[in-house]
Amino acid sequence: MKAFHPDPRCGAASSEDVAQKLAALAHPARLQILRRLGGGRSCCCKEVVEHLDLAQSTVSQHLKILVEAGLVRYAPERQRSRYQINDAALAEVSASVAALVESCCAVDGADC
Predict the structure, then answer these.
(1) pTM score
(2) Nearby residues of 59 by Cβ (< 8 Å), 6 or more positions away
(3) pLDDT in tens, 42-53
(4) Which of 1, 26, 59, 85 is most buried by a 10 A CB count?
């Protein structure tokens, strides 16, 4: 079986970076938050809370994790901070996972 090694020349993320982003995605509430932020919208925490059955403090903590992972951008704006999906980071995770699946599923003539 081929090992998964991202090619740095192609802008592929390191395994650690991909793992951090996947860990941030591995919670249903954070997936709901990303869906809410989808479509290029920029929202404040309060706007996200209004659409989810979660406390403001919970949404705030999940947003912090998404920001730290680089999946969401944070922009302080007067009294309310704005959050927006980092499209490039999500595309990078998608490409890395696709490369991993391709390398794991590639038929190279070796027996398992």
Answers:
(1) 0.80
(2) 29, 33, 45, 48, 49, 52
(3) 899 999 999 999
(4) 59
